[in-house]
Amino acid sequence: MIRSMTGFASASGALEGWSWSWELRGVNGKGLDLRLRVPDWVEGLEVALRKQVTGEVARGNITCNLRIASAENDGTLQVNTAQVDTLLAALHEIEARAMDAGVSLAPSRASDILTMRGVLEQSDQAQDIDALREALLAEFPAVLEDFNAMRRQEGAALADVMQDQLNEVETLAAKAAALADARKEDTAANLRRNLARVMNNSEGADADRVAQELALIAVKADVTEEIDRLAAHVAAARALIGQGGPVGRKLDFLMQEFNREANTLCSKAQSTELTTVGLALKAVIDQMREQVQNVE
User: Taking the model in full, what pTM does it have?
Assistant: First the structure.
């Protein structure tokens, strides 16, 4: 099954005072562009998540957001009372010595003490993040699976649309073949009349040379090869859709080949009916190309 590059998944969880929320988004891209926005203080988390995503996603602009918060209202910082007692004793001694020396000091403020090294520290909850990291890594595969499930669903819808478009290409190609076949006798008759007109009014002309030029004109007006190649491209596109997996690049290249054949058919048409069919083919192929841009 083919997959779309567009997808979304979200989830949330909690563990022992921690809570978190995931958001995983994907949009179209020429290659794989993965952007992870996760807390860098959870050591090894980004590397592990990147490995999981690249193992499941081949193409697209992917953004993964993870927000983590402490479930405690007072945050994850706490006062080191032992360090505060040491600092207060030191400040008291400094102030006493300054007084003895006749030096006047500005009063100490609590905000000044808070900025001193060791006064505020992370709680044991924040320091012990191994369990948090393991919980996050255990939960992420489910988020990734939800993301891929949406991409598969979108891919199935894309496949249905493209199959209908391929059917339309087949129908138009068959109509072009019928029109080309119907004009064969008229084309041959016109060539014979042109040849006779040239030979009757060109004394000394090389008859073989003139015949070769007219044959070349006939070949240039023949759209059989273009119609045959369109049929081959339709078969190749269906095979790729049936194959599934990351086939978007191959389908995109095939769309260029489809368009080339439609352009050539229009340039060779030499009739209003065949030109109309060629333009209809170009329109369908362009619509199909837009769908292919979404395929992984």
Answer: 0.70
